[in-house]
Amino acid sequence: MSEAKVPSSKPSHAYRPETRLVHGGVLRSQYGETSEALFLTQGFIYESAEQCEARFTGHDPGFLYSRFSNPTVSMFEQRMVELEGAEAARATATGMAAVTTAILAPLRAGDHVVAAKALFGSCRYVVEDLLPRYGIQSTLVDGHDLDQWQKAMKPNTKTCFLESPTNPTLDVVDISAVAEIAHRGGARLIVDNVFATPIWQSPLALGADAVVYSATKHIDGQGRCLGGVILSSKDFIQEHIHTFLRQTGPAMSPFNAWVLLKGLETLSLRVKAQTETAAALADVLAKHPKISRLVYPGRSDHPQADIVKKQMRGGSTLIGFEVKGGKAAAFRTLNALKLAKISNNLGDSKSIVTHPATTTHQRLTPEVRAELGIGEGFIRFSAGLEHRDDLIEDFTAALEKA
Ligand SMILES: *Cc1c(COP(=O)(O)O)cnc(C)c1O
Fold it and tell me: Is the dihedral of CA 371, 326, 322, 214 positive or negative?
């Protein structure tokens, strides 16, 4: 890759997001390939012992070892940097590797973390169970109660963590207000932006210090592979993330980086189409007699509709709704759906339904689930790329069996 060069003199920052998603970060080899090259290599060969030494000391910026630098992975990182408007990024093997690294790497025993309690199940495990085992205490708060965030802050609070909209109940947290509370207390704010996607929400512009994604979700969007990414300032990545990833090794495989690069090319098209479908289905379900509650960011009846308007550019590819009749009715509905598949991915081109109480959030006690609004009849729907009328017909027919 010594002859790699960036093909265009105009940085892709100068273009709109859709353009950045196609051209951002491309490193072309001497062959001038159209599509991003897949560098399935563990490492690199040096022209001389001196060059090898310079790579190891960092004086030569070339690639070294695919545990921490690989041209295909770098293209993915750079495309994400340009899309998100971050200064730097590091890709990881999974979304959980990104979340765990972003939270754990900058901390040490004696530090304290404040996080919103409505979190993806594994994120909650990291904050609630894992960190305390290493002497890092954590406090969970109700994400949309700013007083609780304020009261939970301690002199040793170093990190605040939230996701918005939340999984699976699609609550929305005021990112700039929490960022202000965090910064006043000398802490950083990390936002898990999976549900919003980079298309609809930019946490860094709202005051967050770092953003994490599970690239497994909308970024791949076609259910093929796992991946994650941490985006932040150059200082944060250099000081806290780079060495941790380099030495502990949760690296993204070049193959997955290549798949994800191709996924990014269509991200905007897919997310916009999925959002339109979800919005249309939400309007139908909201009026359905067998549904007792529906949450959709983008509808005026969303509990935090004003914050949605303030911090998001669009609604959501996901809907949350409660079927009357609890678990039995929810299961009858899931089993009667023909098109929407029972699975636990989201952001996929295939529509997916999930029953959080028995899957992603089964680790929690029924009381904690109730507190989070995850009832026994609650279903999470992730809109795919099917025709929306087929999905509306599928749900209408399935709900008759509820
Ligand atoms: C899926 C998900 C993760 C974890 O990502 P993996 O790629 O499955 O490790 C983290 N946060 C949220 C909000 C998610 O939906």
Answer: positive
Answer yes or no: is the C-beta of 24 below 6 A from any ligand 1 atom.
Answer: no
Residues of the chain with pLDDT under 50: 1-9
What pTM, to 2 d.p., does this model score?
A: 0.95
- Cβ of 197 less than 6 Å from ligand 1: no
Going by C-alpha positions, the residue among 158, 152, 104 that lies closest to residue 131 is: 104
Instruction: Evaluate whether 1-94+216-265 and 96-212 have a shared fold.
Output: yes
All residues at 6 or more sequence positions from 377 whose CB lies less than 8 Å from its CB, including other chains: 292, 322, 323, 324, 325, 326, 327, 329, 330
CATH level 3 topology of 268-399: Aspartate Aminotransferase, domain 1 (3.90.1150)
Cis peptide before 303, with omega less than 30 degrees from 0? Answer: no
Q: How far is CA 322 from CA 181, 285, 319, 330, 385, in A?
A: 33, 10, 10, 8, 23
Write the residue with the smallest CA distance to atom 2 of ligand 1: 214
The H-assigned helical ranges of 266-363 are 267-286, 305-311, 326-336
Whether the CB of 237 sits within 6 Å of ligand 1: no
Average pLDDT, the chain: 95
Q: Per-domain residue ranges for the chain? A: 1-94+216-265, 96-212, 268-399
pLDDT of 244 reads 97
Strands 352-354 and 378-382 come out as: antiparallel
The pair of structure tokens assigned to 92 is: 């990881």
Do strands 137-141 and 341-342 pair parallel, antiparallel, or not at all (unpaired)?
Answer: unpaired
Contact criterion met (CB below 8 Å) for 383 and 320: no
Q: What confidence tens digit (pLDDT) does each residue in 39-89 have?
A: 999 999 999 999 999 999 989 999 999 999 999 999 999 999 999 999 999
Check pocket membership of 120 for ligand 1, CB cut-off 6 A: yes
Q: Which residue has the tokens 């409660």?
A: 322
Q: What amino acid is encoded at 57 in this protein?
A: T
Q: What is the pLDDT of residue 363?
A: 85
For domain 96-212, which CATH number applies: 3.40.50.720, 3.40.640.10, 3.40.50.620, 1.10.10.10? 3.40.640.10
Is residue 268 within 8 A of residue 17, CB to CB? The reply is: yes
